[in-house]
Amino acid sequence: MPGEKQTAVRYYVGVDVGSASVRAALVDGFGTVVAHAEQPIQVWEPRPDHYEQSSADIWAACCSVTKEVVRGVDASQIRGLGFDATCSLVVVDKQFQPLAVNSEGQSHRNVIMWMDHRAASQVKRINATQHRVLNYVGGAMSVEMQPPKLLWLKENLPESWEKVGYFFDLPDFLSWKATGVTARSLCTVVCKWTYTSDRGWDDSFWKMIGLEDLVKDKYEKIGSHVLSPGEAVGKGLTPDAARELGLPGGIAVAASLIDAHAGGLGVIGADVKGHNLPCENQPITSRVAMICGTSSCHMGVSETPIFVPGVWGPYFSAMVPGLWLNEGGQSATGKLIDHVVRGHVAFPELEAKAAASAHSIYTYLNSHLDLIKKSLPVGFLTVDLHVWPDFHGNRSPLTDLTLKGMVVGLTLSRGLDELALIYLATIQAIALGTRHILEVMQAAGHDISTLFLCGGLSKNPLFVQMHADITGKPVVLSKEVESVLVGAAILGACASGDFASIQEAMAKMGKIGRVVQPNHEHKRFYDKKYEVFLKLVEHQREYRSIMNS
Hints:
Elements: E1 11-17, E2 21-28, E3 33-40, E4 52-53, H1 55-70, E5 78-85, E6 89-93, E7 111-112, H2 120-128, H3 146-156, H4 158-163, E8 164-169, H5 170-179, E9 184-185, H6 186-193, H7 203-208, H8 216-219, E10 226-227, H9 239-245, E11 252-253, E12 257-258, H10 259-267, E13 287-292, E14 296-302, E15 312-316, E16 324-330, H11 334-342, H12 347-356, H13 361-372, E17 386-388, E18 406-408, H14 416-444, E19 450-454, H15 461-471, E20 475-478, H16 483-496, H17 502-509, E21 512-516, H18 523-548
Parallel strand pairs: 1-5, 5-11, 5-12, 9-10, 13-19, 19-20
Antiparallel strand pairs: 1-2, 2-3, 4-7, 6-7, 6-8, 13-14, 14-16, 15-16, 17-18, 20-21
């Protein structure tokens, strides 16, 4: 009304470092993404299972996208900054200069990516110790966690190892760049480094696996000061970082999160009243957040610790303060779909037809499936085609990185119809893998009624519907597609002091967009598909046993 004083809008910046790009968003206090920018980052694959990046390249991209989203905005309205990133390992010397993580001596390539599997023999040795810390990672450590990668570096690159000043999880590297403070986030050290919120670091574990040198100086190299996600780091943004990012100096910078956990934060706490969902009027523990992009993560929380075989955790306060987190996952989902589609002989035809129709290749494939289904439901087209999706090993719940992908039901046909069918069968296999993870979590004590999806794959309606139909659970999609960025901004909002808690910020900034219900008439078909799915891995293990006998 004229004459009334209006309160200035408060903004928060969320920065998300994914596997292939860096994104930033300007988000208001209601969780609305006001501005968004993205920039690709470089990935090196010098040999199979080795994936590397550059921390300098990543930080430059962070600065570029942040400047873009705050351009033209009154600096006094920007209240806080939050980072999330993949759980990749950053290696720097005592002067914080990059150190090579490769035999070529390329020091600018100083990041071992989360999906790097070079430390397979090291993780096998670590798991053979059966140390008590392994109870908190589902009973067996993943090759994607940091201890095996650290051991690989010590054994294979002694020159770099001797020069190391600090090892950072990538989310912590970013908060250090912004503040000059080497504090680590409870999320990263608990989920990927074996730290526990009650006991801290376990000296006996590091000594047992041959990394006793990290115990020196109160673990300074890997983290002697740990903060809860969303807690303010140091004195805020340094003048140098402020200039590079295009932000006001001194604004609050939050202790960071791993990218999947930021996605969970952005969706799992949303108000569901009026949507007729089974989780309405139920605790947040009845929900699972599924963050699906290059890989997928399945985040479930509980009030007491639940030990789930083959599922990471329980981790206390690693995502939602005061609650225990279990984290299931699939190492390759978006990457797998891309691999299967782009590797098919009919891909050039698909690419040309999609371009001619001004659609993405996946929108075109979804439309093509509708054309060939005739009177059948789309999902029933794969009655004779089955995929086991572990082309990059199994993270959960089998924790077997040696498992391989399988396709059963191939013919000599090479056209677009066959490409569409193998695409559909791959999406179904990923959803069947999710069902496998959820069943194991439920058998251990979780009570899950509703899935909350975010990430790139949640934009694909076929992917979403298959997850609803195959799990038999409703799928909630957030109003803001970029839920991971909203999660990062929630961190910045908490660090600013504008919200009393992460829970309050989650409820106010997380918004529901759409609900996708399962088609229960298809249950019998997908129960049979699931039975076949489990038989596939049985057969793989049988033929391995024969070949190795």
